[in-house]
């Protein structure tokens, strides 16, 4: 990627990922222009204030628009070299109660990106869509719509031959809005209880920086139709709650699974494993369409049956270290409960 000559469009650019992507992109990759496309003018205003009085701010353009509005997206896409598609409806319960809207945003929005490139003949070099572990063996609306979104971008490689379309699929981001860690932190501030849905539930955990690195790796090294999956740890949600609650007089309450929840998440299914390889710090799933497959030299084979959060659970101390590294809990080892607490 020749970032210095590239104009990068980020859909959903005012979300947790978009803000971190902007920070890292301007600091480490220095694109010619960065277009933030989102429907929330207040968040755009707040983002402007973040970059106020910085030289890098002149490279950011803010574009108010909805991913469902094809004409507005077409205007934003003109002159763009790289697209990072992060706009999504991603709250699991909200998607269950509003499945049609989830489909319009997650599937229809993806199709609008592809149609803009195809119909406007945009000279876009590369597109990466931000996906989720819930798209693998999906059981909820959010995962189902994101799974179809992945396939929309994979198929686009056949109709837009001059553009590489890839997927970045990863697990829960530690500090993202709506995830369990900010929820637990808020519950602690209000005196509890910390609510968990199932004591045995496991989830992948990763930082926003790692999420951005995964997208950048797909842009720089991805081949058409490939899905990049980071190698990341997982934790039991009950242990996560216990580590965060240490030192606080709060109860932990089990409330039962929410609509559409799974006990464990999977990033690579058994069906995807035969076309998966290891490339550096990432697993790379080859495209499902045979027209896009080819021999890839240098990659290591993926020998596991699948990549599940149940098989990647880290111990309590390692979990505490991870949370300390990201400022979730204080640097006080005595605050971590014993394994048999």
Shape: globular
Report on the biggest sheet: 10 strands, mixed
Quickly name the level 1 CATH class: Alpha Beta
Indicate the radius of gyration in whole angstroms.
Answer: 20 Å
CATH topology name, in short, is: Rossmann fold
Percentage of residues assigned to helices: 25-40%
Following the backbone from N to C, one meets helices and strands in this order, namely EHEHEHEHHEHEEHEEHEEHEEEEEEH
**How large is the count of helical segments?**
10
Report on the architecture of this protein.
This protein has 10 helices and 17 strands. Helix 6 (141-159) links the parallel strand 5 (126-132) and strand 6. It has a single domain, classed as NAD(P)-binding Rossmann-like Domain (Rossmann fold, 3-Layer(aba) Sandwich). The strands form 4 sheets. It has a 10-stranded mixed β-sheet, with helices on both faces. With 341 residues, it is α/β, with parallel strands linked by helices. Helices cover 35% and strands 20% of the residues. Helix 5 packs parallel to helix 6 and helix 7 runs parallel beside helix 9 (237-245).
